[in-house]
Amino acid sequence: MPLDLILMGPPGAGKGTQAKILSQHLGIPHVASGDIFRDHLHRQTPLGQLARQYIDRGELVPDDVTIGMIRERLEQPDCRDGVILDGFPRTLPQARALDQMLSEMGRSLVAVLYIRVQEELLLRRLAGRWTCRTCGAVYHIELNPPRTPGQCDLDGGALYQREDDTEEVHRRRIQVYQEQTAPLVSFYQDQGLLVEIDGERPIQEVTTALLQAIEIRRMAHP
Ligand code: AP5
Predict the structure, then answer these.
(1) pTM of the model
(2) Candidates 80, 124, 162, 201; catalytic one
(3) Is 43 a catalytic residue?
(4) What's the CA-to-centroid distance between 14 and ligand 1, angstroms?
(5) What CATH homologous superfamily does 3-128+179-220 map to?
(6) Ligand 1 pocket: which of 135, 143, 154 to mutate (most atoms <8 Å of CB)?
(7) Which residues in the chain are classed under CATH 3.40.50.300?
(8) Exposed site from 103, 138, 173, 203, fewest CB < 10 Å?
(9) What gap in Å lies between CA 143 and CA 123, rounded to an integer?
(10) pLDDT digits 0-9 by tens, 13-54
(11) What does the pLDDT look like over 66-81, one tens digit per residue?
């Protein structure tokens, strides 16, 4: 059975950081809606131009656009054995559309891993984040610095700060998360899929907790 997982949590919780590590461990792709939008933005496609209007303000891109984009991604052959979804779904209509998509493929979610981090720490993490332009690896200036300043440890790519990494946009993104995405916690709790993980610990400890939770859920999955 494919290993379909969601990593949920507020901006800066560490979803991207953990999804990249889990993807290596589990051998399934990391599908991040934000990364797909940023790739379109970088290539200046029509989708990128549309998404920019929302991303720059910390608002959500409309559901129909986002759902269509993820549907297309999930139909790619590399998603056959499962995926780690990061940043999707973010609204109830997106969550319902995902259930529908997976059911049409004869699949169902194995676990929704909710990484919990308090707001003050989120703001600190987001303020110090640097991302590799080439491979998307994520660093933090104090909490997870690269070996050479400004350079990715993995491929030597240049590190940059995301355009939506400003204090004003961070606060808006956290607010939008509380209003539109936090309700998904009870949605998935009701389905018996939610596993809560303390995301305030060091990166490796969070990874260990996630892997243990996935193993337990995987064994229980029909
Ligand atoms: P998106 O790219 O999804 O951003 P986000 O959800 O706001 O999450 P982030 O990527 O900011 O944080 P993260 O949890 O991945 O943390 P990270 O691992 O980087 O979305 C961006 C925008 O795209 C949205 O605002 C919206 O406009 C649009 N969008 C995307 N999906 C959409 C959807 N489904 N519907 C509509 N619109 C959508 O870590 C943060 C920092 O902390 C890093 O510096 C890292 O090194 C550090 N860190 C991580 N973990 C730890 C730890 N355990 N200890 C110490 N430091 C840590």
Answers:
(1) 0.96
(2) 162
(3) no
(4) 7
(5) P-loop containing nucleotide triphosphate hydrolases (3.40.50.300)
(6) 143
(7) 3-128+179-220
(8) 103
(9) 13
(10) 999 999 999 999 999 999 999 999 999 999 999 999 999 999
(11) 999 999 999 999 999 9
